[in-house]
Amino acid sequence: MTINFLVGVILAIGIAVLTRIKKALTWGAVWMAGGMLIFISCMSGWVESLFLVGMYLSVFVVDAVLGEKMESATKDVHEKGGIRNYKQILANGSVGCICILLYKMRGQSAFLMAYYASIFEVMADSIASDVGVLSKHPPRDICTWKVVKRGISGGVSVLGLMASAIACVVAGMVTGLILKFGMREFLLIIIAPYFGMLADSVIGSRLQVKYVCTVCGMPTEKNKHCGMQTVISGGFKKISNSMVNFICTVLAAVTTCLLAFL
Ligand SMILES: [Zn+2]
Q1: Are 126 and 164 in contact (CB under 8 A)?
Q2: Picking from 134-138, 156-160, 204-208, 245-249, which range would have the lowest pLDDT averaged per residue?
Q3: What is the pLDDT of residue 221?
Q4: Tens digits of per-residue pLDDT, 226-254?
Q5: Ligand 1 centroid distance, CA of 204 (Å)
Q6: If you measure from the C-alpha of residue 78 to the centroid of ligand 1, how many angstroms do you get, rounded to a whole number?
Q7: Ligand 1 center from residue 213 Cα (angstroms)
Q8: CA of 79 to the centre of ligand 1 (A)
Q9: pLDDT by residue (tens digit) across 49-105?
Q10: Chain mean pLDDT for the chain
Q11: How far is CA 227 from each of CA 80, 132, 209, 224, rounded to the nearest angstrom?
Q12: 38 in the Ramachandran plot: left (φ > 0), alpha (ψ -120 to 50) or beta?
């Protein structure tokens, strides 16, 4: 317990320093991410929190490498800028924390797998959209396959989908080898996150709130554009990008649990 707590604190400080230097997280988000790391480390062990750090790092590294490209491609459109706030961290990490709590209470490995599925879903989603920006072709809506503006939720690219698949396989293989998972568990923690990421695009396309600028007519996820309030052009007002992310971590975790218990 003491060792796990200490490792959790060290990892939390490491993430705090890195993300503040890179200005990737707000202070609220730093506290939230650090708290989650310590919680997971104490509840389960430092291996689990190290994987959470790995997930954060994979997101930050891709952000850092592609940052400027992404910023210029999506800054007019995307709901939030590059810096993540505590709500986004909560949307991405809360399901993982609940899974770890259930694992601690019940001791069933299905909850541990659900934890991994939920954090790999976040990674898969982030890599699909970040690497997708590099695609020479414009993104297409996952449901209608019509060309959409970069940064609009629901838009996917073949490059992003492939990069995300590779990331899921690599993350699943590393976890499977370290935790000595069987073939079934191994496949589950690769496939469930990938389906979660696809569900993220489908829900992003069909249900997530979308706005349009009343001045320049650009579709956007921001509620302000050209200095004016934008108007809703589709989706449900309550379903923001963070809400979609949260729903999809739930989907990945619940699917993993159900299939693991079968
Ligand atoms: Zn505008």
Answers
A1: no
A2: 134-138
A3: 83
A4: 889 999 999 999 999 899 999 999 999 99
A5: 21
A6: 13
A7: 5
A8: 14
A9: 988 888 888 877 777 777 666 666 666 666 555 678 899 899 999 999 999 999 999
A10: 89
A11: 16, 29, 20, 6
A12: alpha
Distance between Cα 45 and ligand 1 center (Å): 48
pTM above 0.70, yes or no: yes
Per DSSP, the three-state class of 228 is strand
Question: What's the gap in Å between 77 CA and the centre of ligand 1?
Answer: 10
Q: How far is the CA of 226 from the centre of ligand 1 (A)?
A: 4
Distance 218 CA to ligand 1 centre (A): 6
| Run of H or E including 222 | none
Spacing, Cα 223 to ligand 1 middle (Å) = 10
Distance in Å, CA 202 to ligand 1 centroid: 26
pLDDT of res. 73: 67
Domain residue extents for the chain:
1-56, 95-207+239-262
Rounded distance from Cα 233 to ligand 1 centre (Å): 14
Alpha-carbon gap, residue 133 to 110, rounded angstroms? 35
In degrees rounded to 5, what are phi and psi of residue 42? -70, -40
247 CA to middle of ligand 1, Å? 29
Angle, helices 2-21/27-43, rounded to nearest 10 degrees: 160
Whether 220 has a pLDDT exceeding 90, the answer reads: no
The Å distance, Cα 28 to ligand 1 centre, comes to: 30
- pLDDT tens-digit readout, 110-128: 999 999 999 999 999 989 9
Q: Which two tokens stand for residue 246?
A: 């949260």
